[in-house]
Amino acid sequence: MPHTGGTTDINLLLRKAGISEATAEATIGIDALLQNWRRRAQKRELGHRALADLKIGLDLAQLDVLFAIEAPVDEFGEMAAGETMVASVAERLAIDPSRASRVVSEMVEMGYARRAVSQADARRTIIELTDAGRTVVRAVRAYKFLIMGDFLSGWDAAELAAFLPMLRKFGHWSEHTDLGATKFADDIAELAKQIGAATVKTGAIETV
Asked: Which residues make beta-bridge pairs with 125?
């Protein structure tokens, strides 16, 4: 018999919180899909395949830095604006500045990027891609869009028209975290209490 992970209890909790049965079932189903998607995304299967098929002698961290330097607007949004510095790369990739600096230096040494003087402030050093770097970024983007475009070709026009706006809307759900945590503070406190009681009972309190 498959393990449900307490789905029944979760359903009851959501219903008690005023969330409809249909919404509760959708929430649980969406979370399951996202967790599986996250695990696959962490493996970066498409990225590894692109590097291998395109015969690019870089690793994914280096490729990410090239993308962050190029900063396609459709991917990086407002963060793509302005000149690119090492700090810009760190911010766009949400990585430590020292790590960004190290990988940027590798890309410069390998000829995929170069340092230049800012047109806005001659005291500032900016980073830009060389022709080789731009070629890599554009090739990987084209590779990705060919694969994804082929998959989406199996969708009808109505599905395509509905999916992107809904995905954009769903993309804002994490902004609801603070509001939700406040709204359900009592329920969250009870869940924390249950964890505390369970860990004390099992003797696992020291490892939690």
From this structure: 117
